Each structure stands twice: as structure tokens, then as C-alpha cells.
Amino acid sequence: MKVRDILTITKKDLLLEFRSRETLNSMLLFALLALMLMSFGTGASDAVVRAVGATFLWMVIIFVGMIGVFRAFTSEEERGTLDGLRLAPISAESILLGKIVYNFLLLFMVELIIFPLFIVMLDYPLEGSFLMGLLVLTLGVAGFAVVSTAISALILNARARELLFPVILLPIIFPLLSSAIHGLKTVLNGGGLLDVQKECVVITVYIILFLTISLLTFEYVIEAS
Amino acid sequence: MSSAISIKNLCKQFGNVKALDSVSIEIPRGLSFALLGPNGAGKTTLVKIIATIMRPTSGDVTVDGHDIMREKEKVKAKIGLISHQTFLYEDLSAEENLIFFKNLYHLDDGEKRVEKALKIVKLFPRRYDEVRTFSRGMKQRLSIARALLHDPPILILDEPTSGLDLPGRRDFYEMIRRFKDEGRTVIITTHDVNEVRLIADAIGVLSSGKLLFSGRIESIEHDLEDLLIDLMGEQN
């Protein structure tokens, strides 16, 4: 496993995405529509926004993320390019990590756009630090990228994988999501990093655990069918 | 002459279906070997196993002396695979595609190789154009450039001419002859007997996962087509 190989895969995927903008545009459009609906729907008190805002934002990220992450491997298969990657003298782990980094960057770009919009459109009564909120959100997004990429690879050869993906992903990712939502809510409502220590540890452990499992099994997963 | 590819008792099973059943073949270096057989005979499965992208159920395969299970990366560096699928990214230009594969193969003098490969397949003037704008024949030529980029001694061609028009096929056969002249081992899977006559030194006939025949073309006493009909008939 070489960093150079991982970056080669990531760079290629970013180049393809910036050229076609298929996935990024769909993700942003969905996110904007969801935020608009939320802003109309929650024209309520500050207390309501504080109570449910972080959950709303994470729901948008989950659905937007599922659109984007799922494409990373399936698009290779649809284009008939997956065998080209399998044929190259690089480790299977490099392919997986290249896709994880790409998915994280894609989600991070969306996060950078929708997080400020979320604050503005919902008129969030921010009591904590915006940057700390972004930091905690980014950690959660990294966890989401790792777990969802690993699962999208696992079901690559499955029938009806579009249906299978959320059905498998959501229960598995639930502990990570509840920590990410709770952590974000705490920092947006005035909590410090020490207050979200437990949540950050849970997310980090989840990242390490899923990264280890997926790296150990990916060689078998990627085998041609 | 030592073998470029050595296959011993190779089996591949998908559930209850035996895709390959105790296949053993020795392919000497520098030879052009055609794998013949009807659809579903196991040709592509065999090619995928040799190219290390599919795991065998049992048996041994070595490529240029390297075991496909234990020395995957060394085997991959020895093989160039050209298939009816080009493995190219349509939204990238011809040059960007080759640069991507050059990076995956860790070729330090890659820029020169990319330029040379594009010139060999006569696509240098179109190097900045996206692959989606290419004809099927041009895409296949670029796929050859991709497969040749790391200068592999063994080329595997999995039904490479399917979808090509007559001029495209003629260019393709010309290139295969050139590969042979350069001393490369060429393995081609096909169900076209005429293609075999034009390019192969030896053949292997697969049907329902079993190797029915393997030998040099000149050792076949009667007509190749008759031999195939006899072999398939015997099996059925």
C-alpha cells in the first residue's frame, strides 16, 4: 500500500467529478432543496431550532452522502473500468483508501457549502464556535465516508444494491451518527471540545474499527465476479 | 524454451457450476496462443485468473515464473490485458488516461512512454481529446496503448475484435503480428476460427470448462474447423 497509489486514484476521481460534475451537482441540489424545506418548516422558536437543527443537518448529509458515496465504486463498474484498477500492480487496499479519501473530500466540499447555509437559512441561534462546529461535523463526515465507502464496496456484486445500501448502512452507522449529532448539537449550543470528548472518541474508534475491517477484507471483496 | 504461462489442474467453481475443470496448459515464451471455445466455455474466466483479478478454486498458475496467488503484483507487471472493454475513462482525454495508468504502474519515465504509446497507436494528434469523442476502433487502439505502457512481455487479448469493423480488425491483426515480432507472448481468446488462422501459432480448445485440445496449429492434420466440430460433438 503506497500513498502515491492512493492519491493517484483520488486525483483521477476528483478530475472525473470536476469534469462531469454529475455527483457533486446532484448532491448540492438535494442539500439546498432540503435546507430550503427545513427553513420553511422550522420558522419556529430558537428552542426548536436548537433542539432539532443538528439532526436535520445530519439527515441532509446522510442522504446527500448516500448519493455520492454509492457512486464511487458503482460508476467504475458501470464504465467497465474496475478491471483496469484490479489489473494494475497496486494493492487492493490502495484502491479502497483512494475511494475513501475521494468520498471524504466530496462530502467535505458539500459540508463546507451547506454548513454556513444551514446556519443562515435556519437562522440558527449559534452560541458556540462556528469553527468548532465545522471541526466536529468534519470528524463525523470522515467516519461516514469510511463506513459508507466500505459498505458500498461490500455490496458491489449484490443484486438490487441500490436498495441494499441504505438498508445495511443505516443500522451499522447508527452509533456513529448519534455521536455525531449529539456532538454537533453540543458545540453549536455553546459546548466546548471537552464536552464532546466522548462523542469524538466514539467516532474515532468507529473510523479505526471500520478501516481495519475493510482493509483486511477488501482484497476478497474486489475480486472479479 | 521455458514457459511464459504454466497452468496445472486449474479449477474454478461458481456455486455448483464448474467454470474450469482441471485445466492444464503450458504456453511457451514468444508464442501466439489462441484459446477457442463457444460462449460460456470458460475462456474469460481463465484469462481473469491468469491476470490475477479472479481467484482460482484450486490449481496452480505461474506467469513468467511468478505464482499468481503469492506474487500478484509481479504477475500484474508482466501482463498487459486488452479486452472488448477498454478500461478507459470516457471523460478523460487520451493523454490523461495514459498518465493515470502510467502512475498506477509506477513508470518513472512515463511521459516519454505515454508519448511513444500514443504515436504507436496513431492517436498522438488526438491526445487532448476526451475518449468519449473517439470511435470504437480508436478506443481499442488507445486500450492497446494502455496495455503496452509498461512494456509487458505477455499480452492477453480477451475477444479484442468484438465490435470492430473490418479495417479496425485488419489494423488489430497487424499489431498482433508486431507484438509477436517483438518477442512477446500473445494469448488471444476468440470463437472466430478465421482469426485463429491469421494470428495463432498454437491453440487450446475449451468447452464447458474442460480443455479438449491443446497443441500447435501445424500438428493439426485436418481442417481446424472440422477439428472443432469433432471436439464439440464428442463432448456433447
UniProtKB/TrEMBL annotation, chain A:
GO biological process terms held by the UniProt record: cytochrome c biosynthetic process; cytochrome complex assembly
Location in the cell: Cell inner membrane
Transmembrane region(s): 21-41, 47-70, 100-122, 134-156, 163-181, 201-222
Membrane topology: Multi-pass membrane protein
Keywords: Cell inner membrane, Cell membrane, Cytochrome c-type biogenesis, Membrane, Transmembrane, Transmembrane helix, Transport
Assigned GO CC terms: plasma membrane
GO MF, one annotated term: heme transmembrane transporter activity
Record Pfam families: CcmB
InterPro entries the record matches: Cyt_c_biogenesis_CcmB (IPR003544), Cyt_c_CcmB_bac (IPR026031)
Family: Belongs to the CcmB/CycW/HelB family.
Function of the protein: Required for the export of heme to the periplasm for the biogenesis of c-type cytochromes.
PANTHER family linked to this entry: CYTOCHROME C BIOGENESIS B-RELATED (PTHR30070:SF1), HEME EXPORTER PROTEIN B (PTHR30070)
Protein name, per record: Heme exporter protein B
Automatic annotation (TrEMBL), chain B:
Family: Belongs to the ABC transporter superfamily.
PANTHER family: ABC TRANSPORTER ATP-BINDING PROTEIN (PTHR42711), ABC TRANSPORTER ATP-BINDING PROTEIN NATA (PTHR42711:SF5)
GO MF annotation terms: ATP binding; ATP hydrolysis activity
Protein name per the record: ABC transporter ATP-binding protein
Originating species: Candidatus Syntropharchaeum butanivorans
Gene3D superfamilies: P-loop containing nucleotide triphosphate hydrolases (3.40.50.300)
InterPro entries per the UniProt record, alphabetical: AAA+_ATPase, ABC_transporter-like_ATP-bd, ABC_transporter_ATP-binding, P-loop_NTPase
Domain ABC transporter: 5-233
